[in-house]
Amino acid sequence: MNITSNSFKVIDYNKECFIIKSKGDLTSTVSEEIRELIKSCSKKEYPAIYLNAKDVKEMDLPGINEVIHSHYFLQQVSKKLVFVYRKNSKVEKWVEHTGLDKFIETAIVI
Fold first, then answer.
1. What residues contact 23, with CB distance under 8 A and at least 6 apart?
2. Is 21:3 a contact under the CB 8 Å cutoff?
3. Fewest CB within 10 angstroms: 23, 28, 50, 87, which?
4. Which of 98, 107, 90, 109 is nearest to 24 (CA)?
5. What's the mean per-residue pLDDT of the chain?
6. In the predicted structure, residue 54 carries a pLDDT above the cut 70
7. Beta carbons of 20 and 51 less than 8 angstroms apart
């Protein structure tokens, strides 16, 4: 399975947060699965949802569009998306080309 998810505790929040992790690709093949998980999370008490792409090897336009869609969807229900990715990766190139880090909170792993 390419996508895993679970709740976890973050120091900055009193409530548990939720993490969605892609282990291989963040492409059109996993977009629907991410969208369903985001929709499910929006109904829970999580203040923030982390989309962890630090181990992603391939990313495409539908993948980056899913990140953007998830951000705006969660914003409508007063939740925050944090996009996690690795420095010097293909994902970082997508972030740079799209300016994603200008409007979505990101966390960079070195």
1. 1, 2, 3, 4, 55
2. yes
3. 87
4. 90
5. 93
6. yes
7. yes
| Cα 102 from Cα 72, distance rounded (Å) | 14
- Threshold 0.90, pTM exceeds: yes
Distances (CA, A) of 31 to 40, 45, 109: 14, 23, 22
Amino acid at the residue 23: K
Q: What is the DSSP letter of 101?
A: G
Please return the burial class of 86, using the count of CB atoms within 10 Å of its CB with bins 0-12, 13-18 and 19+. middle
Strands (E), 41-86: 48-52, 58-59, 80-86
What domains lie within the chain, and their CATH numbers?
A: 3-109 (3.30.750.24)
